[in-house]
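Journal club prep — side note

Before the paper discussion, L.F. wants everyone to see what a predicted structure for a comparable chain looks like in token form. Sequence:
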Amino acid sequence: MATKQHCAYCFDVLVLHLEGQPTSRIRADFDTHASYPLFVTWSKQYRGEDRLRGCIGNFSAMQLGNGLREYALTSAISDTRFNPITLRELPQLTCSVSLLTDFEEAEDYLDWEVGKHGVWAEFRMPSGRRQTATFLPEIAEEQGWSKERTVDQLLRKGGYELTITREMRESVKITRYQSKKARLSYSDYVGMRQK
């Protein structure tokens, strides 16, 4: 189960990194050896709305200490969709940690539930190259997407630019999964660390 302590640890890593201090000696108040596939997501308040600021993770189980340290920074400074997060942005940030569980191969591209399952799509490009893309469980629901629209968005996210046909959708291999998620704002993080 993801906890606020996991999110606070990610904030610790990011703050120390942005201040130019080593992150290797951060004390964790959770079992750092438990292993999960995981994602770390940073969002920023902008005009009263949460906006994605970085989200990267891994589908291979990693020990939480190493995995959260790695992906707290990777998602904050190496998500190519965004400029690296700066020290000045910290007060507006929220960190989310998603621990992924219950992976199952779907029978077809519609064999999953919006709001319950994350979807990982594997498909072939016209060149024959294999591509993958994923959305965490909350994405389709937040966007108001149907299952079909979600699969179309996964294809686009993975770089497929041609017309999306029913035949193309049916060729997509879907792995569904669930997520245990925790969120923590920067102000709540500061309050936790002052105790």
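L.F.'s comment for the group: The chain has two domains: 4-101+179-194, 103-177. Keep this in mind when we get to the figures.
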